[in-house]
Please model this.
Amino acid sequence: MSKNTRNKPQPRAAWSGRFAEPVAERVLRYTASVGFDQRLAEHDIRGSLAHARMLAACKLISKADLAAIEAGMRTILAEIRGGKFKWSLASEDVHLNIERRLTALAGDAGKRLHTARSRNDQVATDVRLWLRDMIDAIDAQLRSLQASLLDQAERHAGTVMPGFTHLQVAQPVTFGHHLMAYFEMFARDRERLADCRRRVNRLPLGAAALAGTSYAIDRDMVARELGFDGVCANSLDAVSDRDFAVEFCAFAALVMIHVSRLSEELVLWMSPRYGFIRLPDRFCTGSSIMPQKKNPDVPELARGKTGRAAGNLMALLMLMKAQPLAYNKDNQEDKEPLFDSADTVSDTLAIFTDMVAGIEVDAAAMRAAALEGHATATDLADYLVKKGLPFRDAHEAVARAVRAADARGCDLAALGLAELRKFSPLAGADVFKVLTLEGSLASRNHAGGTAPARVRAAVKRARARLR
Ligand code: ARG
Model:
């Protein structure tokens, strides 16, 4: 856009009355936001139509003016959707571009639209309307990702894998149980999003520039028409705070942090050193030099994009820091980080929903890995405790047995009963049941545990929550 407007003479700015010379070209480009706030256009029009209808209902403009505004806005909407709208840098931002065109189409009626309104309450309204739509779309995407996780968790409720702490084999878990951990993370993300939406969904219009307006307006009517839960209670606050955008960016950063954890695991699991999963080719790319490569680009990129989501949050926090009341032009800088966070989360969730559905599990490789590293050592200690040994002594006995097994290069269960009894005479023939992966899994049979029956129950409950 800046290319074709750079050398053309610029029309006068809407506010140029008190200025002795036109704004410098460089300043115009520095201060204009139309390059990125265009994407608020449809929400700007919705907000303007609600405002105009209220002005007419309050007899602040005539019915004929309202009709002309509505007709003009219909034309403008069609021009924008058809890619025919001429955006001009001289008109600074989305609001003045649309107003200029409306005035060209509707004459004085267009000039009356801005009665009892300022761009300060207008832009705050537009951003909230836009964000509310985005929140609803992203919530639906999170739900879809959760549904993908549930399908895989159900399929693999009994598929054993090593559970890790410190990335060392710790105890057996099921792959389904592992995936359900992500289901819970995304469930909390959705709660945070819903909570954020409540504060987004308040109407700033009526605050005007900062102090309210001298016209007898009806803010509740505008709020109702635009689907807001109510009006912002203080006009100075309404035009100046962007905490709702900060909250959304905090939500977005946290979702991406969760996605990055899953991404990291997918990358590890796909490495031949693990070999736990395969990702379908459509989510991977090759190398231009190494013919054998199949790289997990999507999870890697998602992991990388987490940095940008965290950065956007920081940008908005710093944007708000120490801003004196009320509106300052600083706030124009809210849009790019906010848009970028919303786009990043939305694109990532869409692709992860498909990718998670496409995960192919190598159950034999998972099982083999769970059999290495004495994953059932805790079960042996618990067994001895149930036979009367204090836990600390049981821990010590099993630790020495593990050392012996390691020295012999075998697993705990391969030591044999006679050998095990050297570490604790409490070990009986029934000890091998607790040393199996299945025995270990089945014993963790309580709410939140990894017993396959509990995982299936958790999936069932989770499905009900998604409905
Ligand atoms: N483009 C501006 C923004 O995004 C609109 C509000 C401008 N208001 C003003 N008084 N300059 O914040």
User: Anything to note?
Assistant: The first strand starts at residue 160 and ends at 165. The CA atoms of residues 67 and 109 lie 9 Å apart. Residues 119-155 form the longest helix (37 residues). Strands lie at 160-165, 168-174, 202-203, 230-231, 277-278, 360-361.
